[in-house]
Design a protein that fits this description.
5-stranded parallel β-sheet; 34% helix; two-stranded antiparallel sheet; 11 helices; alpha/beta
């Protein structure tokens, strides 16, 4: 796969360096650095399109803010690429209106906007899926006998945090690993924003934490904490599923809150972020946060 990267700022540099260190250096056919100090609104963004663009299969744009993102589909078209990944790490980076404008400018190109980058999963596109096999939503294998003996990274966050977390939870009691993985993400540190994203109602850094905690939970086969719905009091047909509407994980496409045969909410303890937003939004008080061992299917 030929990978062309458009990068800007500290976040972009972190991603580029991590991907290179994790084996993608030989796949990088081009790297364009975009200045950080560009205005948010640009009338003539085509002036920033590189004069020479290598042929590529996949375009990755990391760290660009505002209208400059409009050069991404132009570069994709000139490179021959039909696949584009534009991860979002900050709510101010690509507002929904700009996202639609980018998509509408290149309807023939598959463009995805994972929020955060470590929520990326295969989407049915050859080159995005090839990338997402190794980089995106974390996936682990854990050997444990009460203590965590060994952690193998199957798929890593593109920033490299998953490898750091895996190394630092070995030797811990298995029941402490879920919580400790979130702490280690902050220690890495994750460069995602701590500003609340108005689209999802939570911070993108928190969303990154939910992804790695889920990876740990699934690898261990249990979760130590989750929101739980009381189906005796849940009136889903009356409230129009406010829990789904407000769950940050659901807002980025993860099936954290689904419906049973009675159209009542069911919360997945593996991917629940324990943010308590659904608890606050439920008009019937039917959701509580429970701390216990949830065995995962």
């Amino acid at each position: 796969m030929k990978l062309y990267i458009i990068s800007s700022g500290k976040y972009g540099s972190r991603i580029v360096n991590s991907l290179a260190e994790m084996g993608l250096a030989s796949s990088m056919v081009g790297l364009e650095e975009i200045p950080e100090d560009l205005p948010e609104f640009i009338d003539d963004f085509e002036q920033y399109v590189p004069k020479s663009i290598s042929q590529a299969d996949l375009i990755l744009a990391v760290g660009l803010f505002g209208d400059i993102n409009m050069i991404v589909p132009i570069i994709a078209r000139e490179s021959g690429a039909q696949s584009v990944i534009i991860p979002i790490h900050d709510p101010a980076q690509i507002p929904p209106g700009l996202q639609r404008e980018i998509e509408e400018s290149a309807p023939e190109i598959k463009i995805v906007f994972p929020k955060p980058f470590c929520s990326l999963e295969p989407v049915g596109d050859t080159y995005i899926d090839e990338f997402a096999q190794q980089f995106g939503r974390p996936q682990l294998e854990i050997e444990s006998n009460g203590l965590i003996k060994k952690v193998k990274v199957i798929r890593t966050a593109p920033c490299g945090s998953t490898h750091f977390i895996a190394e630092n939870i070995e030797g811990l009691p298995a029941e402490e690993a879920e919580l400790e993985s979130g702490t280690k993400l902050h220690n890495y540190p994750c460069n995602a924003s701590m500003s609340t994203d108005p689209v999802v109602g939570d911070t993108i850094l928190h969303l990154a934490g939910y992804q790695v905690k889920e990876a740990v939970r699934r690898a261990l086969g249990f979760s130590m904490k989750s929101a739980v719905v009381d189906h005796e009091t849940c009136e889903a047909d009356e409230c129009q599923h406010e829990c789904i509407k407000h769950c940050p994980q659901a807002q980025i496409g993860i099936d954290t809150v689904t419906l049973n045969e009675n159209e009542q909410a069911v919360i997945d303890p593996a991917s629940c972020g324990c943010c308590e937003i659904c608890i606050q939004e439920c008009p019937y008080g039917s959701i509580e946060l429970e701390e216990k061992k949830f065995e995962l299917e």
